[in-house]
């Protein structure tokens, strides 16, 4: 679960930090300074537990990943990290030549490019339907659509593997009732990735739905009624009223879904192990294999940094593309 | 709009949503039913939708192959400590960011926002090296420490703290209350709903966490539930990983989560709406 910085931070700052530096006239300077010092001290004391954990388990690893990516860090260097040999940009050069990495990158972008729009759209459609006065059943539907989001991804992947099983699976069962033979979804190079995408949509659309619902409820009903009086049909209302007014929410959901999907790991790990023939190998999965199956940790770190760079670039691009139109 | 058109529109909405709901719940129902089917029923074609005879054989087999009570305990211990840590540390930092005007506050908040964007996978390798250097592989400490305080928790708590009026805190300060007293006795009690929201998110996040426990445990005694199930599911050497047993295992992992979610669902929607829109 992550949150969007963009839609949130502007509304809340109440105080300019410079405001306290000069005490109001007539104040005893000593007392004011004492209060001020107390505030700074208290602020840092309250912050310190988080900051210590943050420095140890986040800031340091971010820097360490970068440093490791310039070395040939391997299994024996775990006991002696300083012993790893500095090899400059060799890992990155190797990545550029690595066909498997290129495949993984392509698969990841395929997963994101198809999966994100469909997930966001599905979430939006369900939210719009739920917002059209379902009354008391709304909670019931909302729980049902959101349930996959909270369930353990490993269990979900195990269940879906069985749902998609060409012999004993749910889909093959339904198909056999109408006399059709089920394709081998996860065993086919063409169908494996679309199957994972379908599962990802199923699992994640509830997240968007809940956020969209909150956004939809903030659109005044008068706006909708006015549009209807002017003769707008449901589709026009959706395109001309709902989507434009929901733009910040759309941006937020798109960004968090994209970040999540760029990191896709558990689904291929449990369901296909990257196969068949690397057709569902993603960057995170390859990074895991290189790092923990083969202990090419320097190389895997370079992969992590390439992925991070892509994530940041895509996020910034989305912020830009989806934002500017509102102005 | 005419009355009739309104009725048609309503039924269409309900119909579409019900169809969607069926698609959403089908895998869960399939899982639950399959867990109780006999092996013959599981393999039957045309399929047997409802178990002919209900059986607990898969659960029994699962419990003999896997030490599920141990994995359950491990998951609970880890999730409990992670939740407690987040409640305390994220609230403290959130309080400082929202209510204490101290030097460096703004850049620190920027740090939190940046922390929200960094994917956990990126940190995996050095964190692994660090934890192994601290000799914490296969230990609760190793499973817990890196997750003890998350950026999401700080962000959420700060958002909720902003809604507490400054006058209230200022009055307590004039009365000579210490910052800790104000935080612990005034602010925290006011934030019970927010704390509940954060607790649920953190607990489930930890319960569902997979990659980190997978990486730092290879001693089955320290496996969390998802790791145990995944290891069992993908182990090519285990011929015992039948579909019935896997569905029984998945059901056992999913059931507590779904139970908690359904019981406390309004906190979820509240939390997401707060983090996303405020």
TrEMBL record, chain B:
GO biological process per UniProt: transmembrane transport
Species lineage: Bacteria, Bacillati, Actinomycetota, Actinomycetes, Kitasatosporales
Protein name: Carbohydrate ABC transporter permease
Ranges of residues in domain ABC transmembrane type-1: 72-264
Keyword Transmembrane: yes
Principal subcellular localisation of the protein: membrane
Similarity annotation: Belongs to the binding-protein-dependent transport system permease family.
Compartment annotation: Cell membrane
InterPro entries named in the record: MetI-like, MetI-like_sf
Membrane topology term: Multi-pass membrane protein
SUPFAM superfamilies: MetI-like
Entry GO CC: plasma membrane
Transferase among keywords: no
Transmembrane segments: 12-33, 71-96, 108-128, 140-161, 182-204, 245-264
Keyword list, A-Z: Cell membrane, Membrane, Transmembrane, Transmembrane helix, Transport
Classification via Pfam families: BPD_transp_1
């Amino acid at each position: 679960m992550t949150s969007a910085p963009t839609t949130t931070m502007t509304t809340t700052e109440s105080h300019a930090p410079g405001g306290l530096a000069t005490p109001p006239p007539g104040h005893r300077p000593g007392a004011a300074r004492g209060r001020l010092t107390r505030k700074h001290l208290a602020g840092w004391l309250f912050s310190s537990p988080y900051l210590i954990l943050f420095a140890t388990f986040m800031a340091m690893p971010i820097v360490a990943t970068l440093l490791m990516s310039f070395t040939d860090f391997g299994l024996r260097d775990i006991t002696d990290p300083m012993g790893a040999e500095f090899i400059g940009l060799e890992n990155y050069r190797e990545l550029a030549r690595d066909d498997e990495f290129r495949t993984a990158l392509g698969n990841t972008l395929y997963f994101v490019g198809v999966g994100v729009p469909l997930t966001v759209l599905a979430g939006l459609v369900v939210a719009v339907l739920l917002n059209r006065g379902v009354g008391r059943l709304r909670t019931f539907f909302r729980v049902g659509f959101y349930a996959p989001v909270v369930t353990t991804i490993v269990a979900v992947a195990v269940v879906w593997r069985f749902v998609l099983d060409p012999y004993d699976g749910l889909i093959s069962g339904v198909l056999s009732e109408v006399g059709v033979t089920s394709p081998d979804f996860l065993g086919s190079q063409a169908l494996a990735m679309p199957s994972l995408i379908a599962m990802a949509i199923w699992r994640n659309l509830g997240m968007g739905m809940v956020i969209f619902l909150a956004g939809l409820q903030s659109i005044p009903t008068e706006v909708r009624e006015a549009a209807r009086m002017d003769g707008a049909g449901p589709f026009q209302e959706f395109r001309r009223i709902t989507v434009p007014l929901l733009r910040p929410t759309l941006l937020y959901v798109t960004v968090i879904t994209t970040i999540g999907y760029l990191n896709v790991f558990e689904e291929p790990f449990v369901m296909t192990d990257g196969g068949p023939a690397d057709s569902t190998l993603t960057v995170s999965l390859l990074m895991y294999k290189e790092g923990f199956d083969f202990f090419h940790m320097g190389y895997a770190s370079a992969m992590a940094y390439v992925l991070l760079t892509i994530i940041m670039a895509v996020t910034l691009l989305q912020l830009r593309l989806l934002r500017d139109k509102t102005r | 709009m005419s009355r009739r058109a309104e009725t048609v529109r309503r039924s269409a909405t309900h119909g579409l949503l019900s169809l969607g709901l069926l698609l959403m719940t089908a895998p869960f129902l399939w899982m639950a039913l399959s867990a109780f089917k006999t092996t013959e029923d599981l393999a039957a074609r045309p399929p047997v939708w409802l178990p002919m005879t209900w059986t607990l054989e898969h659960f029994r087999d699962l419990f003999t192959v896997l030490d599920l009570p141990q994995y359950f305990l491990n998951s609970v211990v880890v999730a409990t400590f992670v939740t407690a840590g987040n409640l305390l540390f994220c609230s403290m930092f959130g309080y400082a960011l929202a209510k204490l005007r101290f030097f460096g506050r703004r850049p620190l908040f920027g740090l939190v926002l940046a922390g929200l964007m960094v994917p956990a996978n990126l940190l995996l390798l050095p964190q692994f090296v660090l934890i192994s250097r601290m000799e914490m592989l296969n230990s609760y400490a190793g499973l817990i420490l890196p997750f003890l305080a998350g950026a999401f928790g700080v962000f959420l708590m700060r958002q909720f703290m902003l809604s507490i009026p400054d006058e209230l805190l200022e009055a307590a300060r004039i009365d000579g209350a210490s910052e800790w007293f104000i935080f612990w006795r005034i602010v925290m009690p006011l934030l019970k709903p927010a704390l509940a929201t954060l607790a649920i998110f953190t607990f489930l996040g930890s319960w569902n966490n997979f990659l980190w426990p997978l990486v730092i445990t290879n001693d089955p005694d320290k496996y969390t539930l998802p790791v145990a199930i995944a290891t069992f599911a993908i182990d090519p050497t285990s011929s015992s990983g039948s579909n019935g047993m896997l569905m029984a295992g998945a059901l056992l992992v999913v059931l507590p989560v779904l139970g908690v979610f359904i019981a406390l669902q309004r906190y979820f929607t509240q939390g997401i709406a707060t983090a996303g829109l405020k």
